[in-house]
Design brief:
The complex is a heterotrimer of chains A (351), B (302) and C (328).
Chain A: E1 18-28, E2 40-51, E3 56-60, H1 67-74, E4 82-87, E5 90-91, H2 100-106, E6 107-110, H3 124-135, H4 140-153, H5 158-161, H6 171-183, E7 189-193, H7 201-218, E8 221-226, H8 229-235, E9 238-243, E10 246-252, H9 253-258, H10 263-270, H11 311-315, E11 321-324, E12 327-329
Parallel strand pairs in A: 3-8, 3-9, 6-7, 7-8
Antiparallel strand pairs in A: 1-2, 1-4, 4-5, 9-10, 10-12, 11-12
Helix pairs in contact in A: 3-4, 3-6, 4-6, 6-7
Chain B: H1 25-35, H2 37-54, H3 56-59, H4 92-127, H5 130-144, H6 148-159, H7 163-190, H8 193-200, H9 205-241, H10 253-259, H11 268-296
Chain C: E1 7-17, E2 22-33, E3 38-42, H1 49-56, E4 64-72, E5 75-76, H2 82-88, E6 93-96, H3 100-103, H4 110-122, H5 126-139, H6 145-148, H7 158-170, E7 176-180, H8 188-205, E8 208-213, H9 216-222, E9 225-230, E10 233-239, H10 240-246, H11 250-258, H12 297-301, E11 307-310, E12 313-315, H13 320-327
Helix pairs in contact in C: 4-5, 4-7, 5-7, 7-8
The chains are: A alpha/beta (351), B mainly alpha (302), C alpha/beta (328).
Chain lengths: 351, 302, 328
């Protein structure tokens, strides 16, 4: 994709805007009063992916998969235990690289709409102007003028909205404010953490259209986190599928949705409700709930729910391997010689 | 037939049910308070008490310190001394009115100071890491080992009587609860999404505290502090009653209660009047605090 | 309809009285559900779907006025006494909610809650009730059901709690089950399991189900009939495939178009202009008219009468007939 380079660009078009390598975060599980628990919540366990400039990468997964934690690790809202984040060729927090503060000026997050995503005691203009005023020392008048401009950009009339308070707004309006706030610092990349999940479908459509326009007009790069597969398919260029803190499959959106190769991805896609009343879903591929991230299964974490699990799956965690032109899968069945009985006999998109 | 193709620029209007004017949180709270009849009544009573205390020289009918043995313990309704006289012959009404000054000062000042100090400590404990939090909160816990009345008495007993010492000891008594409440509020607010967004905007910590955390914590603190004023009035009256607070001949409700104790069989109504004043004022502050809490508990529209 | 409908609702209307205004949450909802039939009510927030559902069991706060007639299994419950309603709730008519954690009592085990329901409503002896509770937990496919009988709600995962809540609701084999967005808060792989479970149990028990949701996919998976709700009214009702294919009412069309299924990825999405109406100040005429691309002056003046668009398919739109003729 030929995207005009931003004035802050460092690495050039070929340089991915974001590279994540082996990101890890383990939380200590709560123990009892008498004994510190040695259990760890393995929220994110070795996540690696990259995002090209101007691209939208969608991250899907269910509860406990670690996608929201990953988002916060990227911005260092939570400190990673291990791994590196490289923004436009510069390591974050590394000597000679880019500091966390400078990273945040270039990468911002849009939160899920909830009553707690906007400060209830501040006006809309204050909320949007807060970042530039406090982080970039922009004078108040200028910051508020810019806030007005941003409100227009997200489709809200400044004269009507600038002096309002969050509790006077609808969900869709609040989400537009969330977006405006994220854009206030003029970032190059936005992380959208379930940004449309709490909205009605018709409002969701409006916001998705808005996000597409902004991406085009401002040359933004998106990391779009969602549990809704339809939304991810609609907005993404590439898709990353997460399960229990690890990536199980990654690839172009067409490859993932038309030729899903990991058993979990297949189950996920099959679990989407049918829209045809004459062809309803008859059976579910998966049973039970997504397991607990505390003390996950050894080896391949999906093996406890996988129809094809074998002994090697419990012993050896599968690596994320490239099976065909950027399509990566972490499954022993896809790797010839892995020890799995079906290894090497399967092609991408098997059923 | 119209062609329903792509979207036209949507006309988005703010929720008109909230009215044409932007309504800040506090103005909504104010409006709810005004509609709460109990709180209005209580507020009116308190206003009277405060005004009487401020304008005591004009409201009082006699010199509160001037007594005459000839007219001791006159009953309620005596011409010229409509609430009667005390055991030295001083006018009860004038003493109550002047006593209001002392009682209100002893009620409000310790709480105000405790809020300042305790609020700051609570904020620091809430925002600081685990070590800072533990350091502050465990010290606070130590103070919780003592019942507040005993603590106040003990401190006053050590540092001596007098209005200044009373206020100091009450301030020490009230600081730990305020620290706890503030720390709890801060910890809750700290985890909300908008604070995380503020952190993600690379804003410095002091700006986040000032603009994001503090405005959301002050409300709860205000409610709690208001409820403490009522207790403070009772405690200071209690200390004066025990001789540890205000010294005679100053008119202070607790002191008056002590002095009139002997007269309870002679003129029970007059003897009870200072107690009534204490109860009334304290109750009003408590009800005000309740009303404030209800008004602030706004269910956000969905 | 030859037999008594499981539930018959006529002109249901619910108003909330606030200090300075009246909120018209439900404005004349009528439908009839036979035994074994599933009605999906599709609507967005503010459509009144949850209020309508709760009013069927009279689970609304006191400051609201309910009008209309509700007949449950031949019995008129509109003016029923509170004690009669208590006998019916959980027994003849039951409800499952979006958040099982708030619907289940946290201080009692699952077993205790089901047993209590059985004992109270069916007068079962405790031992039999315990056995029946176990059967139900197994029927809703909770693994290690015997152990789960003595588990507390917080000890179970989200999907399991949802199943436990379903077991609790169905334990007395009610005639009507009300489902208020039961799968909205669930992960997609759990959601499909719950939807399949509901369909299976509904078929086995021959229950009538009213399934309220904003998710078209979920509604299509379980419903026989679909009712699209907007501003407190049913704007279109009919068999699922009829409503889905014909989309007689412009709101139905907009709603289904905003659904991302089958849309070209990356394309511009169709949206519905404007915002939902203020329920305290509904416009005269059709509530959807201000946002409707097909609106005529007539629409803003007079509330559309129900137009028959097919067998059992009704839409409240002055232009419904011409719309389906063009679409056909």
């Amino acid at each position: 994709m030929n995207v005009p380079l931003s004035s802050d660009d460092r690495g050039g078009t070929a340089q991915p805007l974001l590279i994540v390598r082996d990101l890890k975060k383990h939380f200590p599980a709560k123990g009892s009063f008498w004994r510190l628990s040695r259990d760890k919540v393995q929220a994110v366990d070795g996540v690696s992916f990259s995002v090209a400039k101007g691209q939208t990468v969608g991250v899907v997964g269910e509860s406990g998969c670690g996608k929201s934690t990953t988002a916060r690790l990227l911005l260092h809202l939570i400190e990673p235990d291990a791994g590196e984040v490289i923004f436009d060729g510069e390591g974050v927090g590394a000597p000679g690289g880019i500091g966390v503060r400078d990273l945040r000026l270039q990468m911002q997050m849009v939160f899920q709409d909830s009553y707690s995503s906007l400060n209830p005691r501040a006006t809309i203009a204050d909320i949007i102007a807060f970042g530039p005023r406090m982080a970039k020392k922009v004078p108040s008048r200028q910051a508020h003028d810019r806030a007005g401009g941003l409100l227009e950009q997200v489709g809200l009339q400044p004269s009507l909205f600038a002096r309002r308070y969050p509790h006077e707004l609808s969900g869709g309006q609040r989400q537009r404010i969330n977006i405006a706030r994220a854009l206030a610092l003029e970032p190059r990349m936005l992380i959208l953490d379930e940004a449309v999940s709490a909205l009605d479908k018709s409002v969701e459509a409006q916001i998705l259209n808005l996000l597409a326009d902004l991406r085009r007009d401002l040359g933004l790069t998106y990391l779009f986190i969602s549990h809704d597969l339809n939304v991810v398919r609609h907005v993404s260029d590439r898709v990353v599928v997460m399960y229990l803190g690890r990536i199980v499959e990654a690839g172009d959106v067409g490859a993932i949705f038309r030729r899903p190769s990991h058993p979990y991805t297949q189950a996920l896609l099959r679990a989407m409700p049918s829209m045809d009343p004459d062809r309803r879903t008859e059976a579910s591929l998966l049973t039970g709930d997504p397991p607990n991230p505390i003390n996950p299964p050894s080896g391949c974490r999906f093996r406890t729910r996988c129809a094809f699990a074998e002994e090697v799956c419990a012993r050896v965690p599968p690596a994320l391997d490239d099976i065909a032109g950027g399509h990566q899968v972490a499954c022993h069945m896809m790797v010839p010689g892995s020890g799995h009985s079906r290894a090497g006999t399967i092609c991408a998109g098997h059923d | 037939m119209a062609d329903v193709s792509t979207i036209l620029q949507p006309i988005i209007l703010p929720d008109t049910s909230a009215g044409a004017e932007p309504r800040s949180y506090w103005s909504t709270v104010g409006e709810r308070l005004v509609h709460d009849r109990i709180t209005l009544a209580v507020g009116a009573v308190l206003l009277c008490v405060i005004l009487l205390a401020i304008f005591a020289p004009w409201a009082a009918t006699h010199d509160p310190l001037q007594g005459s043995v000839l007219r001791r313990l006159k009953p309620v309704g005596t011409p010229g001394f409509f609430l009667g006289t005390d055991e030295i012959g001083r006018d009860i009404w004038s003493r109550l009115v002047y006593g209001g000054r002392l009682s209100l000062i002893c009620g409000v000042t310790p709480v105000a100071l405790a809020t300042l100090i305790g609020g700051t400590l609570g904020l620091v404990a809430g925002i600081g890491g685990r070590v800072v939090n533990m350091a502050i909160m465990r010290v606070v816990d130590v103070f919780y080992a003592f019942p507040s009345v005993l603590l106040a008495i003990a401190i006053c007993g050590v540092i001596g009587a007098g209005i200044g010492n009373t206020m100091l000891s009450l301030m020490i008594v009230f600081t730990p609860p305020i620290v706890r409440v503030t720390e709890s509020l801060t910890a809750q607010v700290k985890n909300r999404d908008f604070v995380e967004a503020a952190r993600a905007s690379a804003a410095p910590l002091h700006a986040i505290i000032r603009h994001q955390i503090l405005p959301n914590v002050l409300g709860g603190m205000l409610v709690y502090a208001t409820s403490l004023v009522g207790i403070s009035i009772i405690l200071s009256a209690g200390l004066s009653f025990l001789g540890l607070g205000v010294t005679p001949p100053n008119p202070e409700w607790g002191l008056m209660l002590n002095a009139l104790r002997q007269a309870i069989f002679v003129n029970p109504i007059v003897a009870a009047l200072p107690g009534l004043a204490i109860v009334l004022t304290s109750l009003c502050f408590n009800l005000l605090s309740d009303g404030l809490r209800s008004a602030m508990d706004i269910k956000l529209p969905s | 309809m030859t037999e008594t409908p499981a539930i018959d609702v006529e002109n249901l209307a619910v108003r909330f009285q606030q200090r300075d205004r009246t909120i018209h949450a439900v404005n004349g909802v009528s439908f009839r559900l036979a035994r074994g039939e599933v009605l999906g009510i599709l609507g967005e927030s503010g459509s009144g779907k949850t209020v309508a559902l709760r009013s069927l069991m009279r689970l609304l706060p006191h400051n609201c006025g309910i009008a209309g007639r509700v007949v449950l299994d031949g019995e008129d419950v509109t003016a029923a006494s509170e004690s009669r309603l208590e006998e019916l709730r959980g027994n003849r008519i039951a409800m499952i909610f979006q958040e099982p954690a708030t619907a289940l009592d946290p201080v009692f085990t699952i077993g205790q809650q089901i047993i209590e329901t059985l004992v109270r409503h069916l007068g079962m002896p405790r031992r039999d009730a315990r056995r029946r509770a176990l059967e139900w937990l197994e029927r809703v496919q909770i693994p290690s059901a015997r152990r789960r009988l003595d588990s507390y709600p917080h000890e179970m995962s989200g999907g399991m709690r949802q199943r436990a809540m379903i077991a609790l609701a169905l334990s007395c084999s009610p005639t009507v089950l009300l489902a208020d967005e039961p799968t909205t808060a669930l992960d997609v792989t759990v959601q499909i399991q719950i939807l399949l479970l509901l369909r299976e149990l509904q078929r086995e028990l021959g229950m009538a189900v009213i399934f309220v949701t904003h998710d078209v996919g979920a509604a299509v998976e379980v419903s026989d009939r679909l009712a699209v709700m907007y501003a407190g009214r049913f704007v279109e009702t009919g068999a699922v495939r009829d409503v889905l294919r014909k989309r007689a009412h412009p709101y139905t069309e907009g709603l289904l178009a905003a659904n991302l299924h089958g849309v070209e990825p990356g394309s511009r999405l169709m949206t519905i202009a404007g915002a939902p109406p203020n329920l305290a100040a509904l416009p005269p005429g059709c509530s959807f008219a201000p946002r409707c691309a097909y609106a005529l002056p007539l629409c803003g003046e007079t509330m559309p009468a129900p137009v028959i668009c097919g067998d059992g398919h009704v839409a409240r739109c002055w232009r419904a007939e011409e719309r389906i003729k063009v679409a056909a």
